[in-house]
Design goal:
Mean pLDDT: 84
Low-confidence stretches: 21-34
Number of domains: 2
Strand content: 35-45%
Radius of gyration: 23 Å
Number of helices: 2
Helix content: 10-25%
Distance between the termini: 73 Å
Number of strands: 16
Strand order of the largest sheet: 5-6-7
Structural class: alpha+beta
Order of helices and strands: HHEEEEEEEEEEEEEEEE
Length: about 170
């Protein structure tokens, strides 16, 4: 290995090393500051329905458990507790999620992990753009609805991008 006489080259290697170390610490912090690692979440029984579940704080994490016995479960969807309804991924509440997610009772507008029952308008998820009323996608809605991008023709709750106008 040759030693560089140029101080800029030596400083760049130092910056790279510091960046790598910070990245590793950040990565480890995400997994170790939470009480639930992805591997641990996968070890719980997978549940497809929110019925009979609640959200409960365990350590630093908010997780889904069975109401009947408190057993943890691996559930992805929207589950409730006394503070509201929450977006859950792999059995853990995702407080960063904003979008539309579903459970046994419908599709719901989520803001920062929590169902927003005051949401009215047109919102997007990976299936398209949807008419939301009182926080819930209204699959029976046919007509026009607005959002910050304009006015849209809605058919069966979904924006009809093929609509040509009046």
């Amino acid at each position: 290995m040759t030693k560089h006489s140029n101080p800029a080259v030596r400083m760049n290697w130092s910056a790279v090393l510091v960046s790598v170390l910070l990245g590793v610490l950040l990565f480890l912090g995400v997994f170790f500051l939470s009480n639930t690692s992805p591997a641990e979440a996968r070890s719980y029984p997978i549940v497809r329905s929110c019925k009979g579940l609640t959200v409960k704080q365990v350590g630093k994490s908010w997780v889904t458990v069975k109401k009947s016995n408190g057993a943890r479960v691996n559930y992805t969807g929207v589950a409730e507790n006394s503070n509201g309804w929450w977006r859950v991924v792999g059995g853990v509440v995702d407080f960063k999620y904003t979008g539309i997610a579903e459970n046994d009772y419908g599709w719901w507008r989520i803001e920062n992990g929590k169902v927003d029952f005051n949401a009215d308008g047109v919102f997007q998820n990976f299936h398209g753009w949807w008419k939301v009323q009182d926080g819930k996608v209204d699959f029976g809605y046919n007509g026009f609805a607005d959002n910050e991008n304009g006015t849209w023709m809605i058919r069966n709750g979904k924006v009809d991008f093929n609509y040509g106008g009046l």
